[in-house]
Amino acid sequence: MRTAPYEMINGLSEVIGKYDAVILDLWGVVHDGVKAYPNSVNALEALKAAKIPVALLSNVPRRSSVVIERMENMGIARDLYSVIAASGDIAYRHLVDRVDPWYAALGKRVFRVGPVRDMSMFEGQDIEIVSRLEDAEWMLVTGPDDDFDPLSKYENMLHAAKTLELPMLCPNPDREVVRDGHQIICAGALGGRYEELGGDVRWEGKPFASAYDFCLQMFDKGPDAKLLVVGDSISTDIAGSNNAGLDVALVTGGIHAAELGAPRGTLPEREKLDALLAATGRHITYAIGDFCW
C-alpha cells in the first residue's frame, strides 16, 4: 500500500482549485441521518458558487428519490448537487433488470430485514414479501428493523437463513454510522456476520467498483477529469477511493472521531491518524475535521 504523505486542511477552499468535480458521501459528511451538519450546506453553496459540480454517492439502501426528499426536509436543497447515486438504486436496477446472473437466479419470494423507510426497494416489482424464512427464496437486508437493535438480536435468524442456504442482498456495506449522535449498526454488520457463517452475500455500494462506475456514468465526466472524493469511513469511502485511484479527503470528525480523539471540526494528532491508516492499509490525500469550505 502507498504511504504517501497527506495534507491536513481546514477547508475545501484550500485545495478545490485542483479539481473539476467532487464526489461526496452523505451520512457522516453532509448529515447525521436526522439533520444537516452546521457547515455542510454552506460548503455545498460555496461549491455551487465556484461552479464545481457535486455528485452524492451514498451507501443508503433506498431509492434516490427518497433520499432527495429526506435531504430537502433537512434543508439541503436539490439545486446544490447535480447527481445522486445511492447503493439502493444500484441494487434496485439489478432487481428490475435481472440480467446479472446472481440477480437472475433470485426467485420472487423475499424475506426482508430493515426499517419501513426502505420499502422503496420493492416499488414496481413482481416480488412477494414473506414473513417466514422457510417461505423465502432470498433475503434483502437494508439494516436492523429498529435503529438501536444490537447485532446479537439477529444471530439466530442468520443461522437459520444459512441452514436454508438463502442468498442475501445487502445494498449497504456500512457496518455502523452515527445517527443523531448515537452509533448504530447498519446492514453491513448483518451481511458481514452472514458471510462469517458462510452465507452468500451480494454487496452493492462503496467500496465496491460498481458504486463508482454507477456514479461516474451518471456524472458524465470525461476520462481526464480530476475528481476529489470526500468521506468519513475508512472501510467504505477511503477503501473505495483507493481502489478507484481517486484523491480523497477524510472527514476525521465522522465515524472515526472517537478513536482519533478529535470531535467534528477539529483535526486529530497526526500520530493517531497515521496509526489508523497504517492499521487499515489505506491512504488519503487530505484530512479535514469537517465537510466545510
TrEMBL record:
<keyword id="KW-0378">Hydrolase</keyword>
<dbReference type="Pfam" id="PF13242">
    <property type="entry name" value="Hydrolase_like"/>
</dbReference>
<dbReference type="InterPro" id="IPR006357">
    <property type="entry name" value="HAD-SF_hydro_IIA"/>
</dbReference>
<dbReference type="GO" id="GO:0005737">
    <property type="term" value="C:cytoplasm"/>
</dbReference>
<dbReference type="InterPro" id="IPR006356">
    <property type="entry name" value="HAD-SF_hydro_IIA_hyp3"/>
</dbReference>
<protein>
    <submittedName>
        <fullName>TIGR01459 family HAD-type hydrolase</fullName>
    </submittedName>
</protein>
<dbReference type="InterPro" id="IPR023214">
    <property type="entry name" value="HAD_sf"/>
</dbReference>
<dbReference type="InterPro" id="IPR036412">
    <property type="entry name" value="HAD-like_sf"/>
</dbReference>
<dbReference type="GO" id="GO:0016791">
    <property type="term" value="F:phosphatase activity"/>
</dbReference>
<dbReference type="Pfam" id="PF13344">
    <property type="entry name" value="Hydrolase_6"/>
</dbReference>
